[in-house]
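Hey, I was hoping to borrow your eyes for a little while. I've been puzzling over a protein and I'd love to understand its fold better. The fold is given in discrete form, as structure tokens running alongside the sequence. I'd be grateful if you could look everything over and explain what you see. No rush at all, and the record is pasted right below.
>
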Amino acid sequence: MANALFPSTLSRKHYVIRWLVMFAVVLASMMFFVAAPMGAAAQIAGLLFGLVVLFAFLYNIFGLSIPRLKNAQISLLALLLVFIPFGVLILFGVCAIAREKA
């Protein structure tokens, strides 16, 4: 199971598919948060949305980007892009366009 969620390398196709699934999960949790009625339900939905975004951010780094950068033989220093504004989108572009070197 750990290898299914956190593979050692990822091809370009698998990277893009997993990234789109992760994006859809974050989008669905955002819609759940927006549609939640006021009160305790909104607080629970807000907490759930925050947790989903946090897990998606961590999974993007450890489950998607690191294996993809290893497969494309790009330095892992490219992960520093996630700490600048819109850097995640730049990193997605780098990982989605880079060819496999293995």
User: Anything to note?
Assistant: DSSP finds four helices and no strands in the chain. The CA atoms of residues 32 and 45 lie 7 Å apart.
